[in-house]
Design goal:
This protein is of the alpha/beta class and about 150 residues long. It starts with a strand and ends with a helix.
Length: about 150
């Protein structure tokens, strides 16, 4: 059974709703999942996981500073996450900026040598039923990649 952490920042609830749906998708594939806000996360525990999934709202084409702080703090486990599975998702006001934030999140995990599952969800505004389903499907794909 894969052990997966879903770590997110959310100020208005949209990214949190996405995180919970991603976690549901992971669980549907049989994974054990922890869902945690980035402010409460110790990246040193990432070495115990099979997969790390990061989510953030998009601010000016990038992740929120709270998510970036967690990424910066993850230097403590640099070179210890190689070949683990990664996943990313973002909520946004505009598709183009969301794609940029998704890329920034992907780079953060890629620099650790993680295998990031492509196609992370980008949700414009409040997640619709289709967005929630896309998040669940993505979580399932990440779990199956472990």
């Amino acid at each position: 059974m894969a052990v997966i952490g879903v770590f997110y920042f959310s100020s208005g609830g949209n990214t949190e709703a996405m995180a919970r749906a991603v976690a549901e998708g992971c669980e549907s594939a049989g994974a054990q999942v922890t869902v945690q806000r980035v402010e409460e996360t110790d990246p040193k525990k990432w070495t115990e996981l099979d997969a790390v999934i990061l989510g953030s709202p998009t601010y000016f084409g990038n992740m929120a500073w709270q998510a970036k702080k967690l990424v910066d703090d993850s230097i403590a486990v640099y070179q210890h996450l190689r070949d683990k599975v990664g996943g990313v998702f973002t909520s946004t006001g505009g598709r183009r900026d969301g794609e940029r934030a998704l890329q920034a999140l992907t780079w953060a995990l890629d620099i650790h040598g993680m295998k990031v599952v492509d196609g992370g969800p980008v949700c414009e505004g409040q997640p619709s039923a289709d967005d929630i389903e896309a998040c669940r499907a993505y979580g399932k794909r990440v779990a199956e990649a472990c």
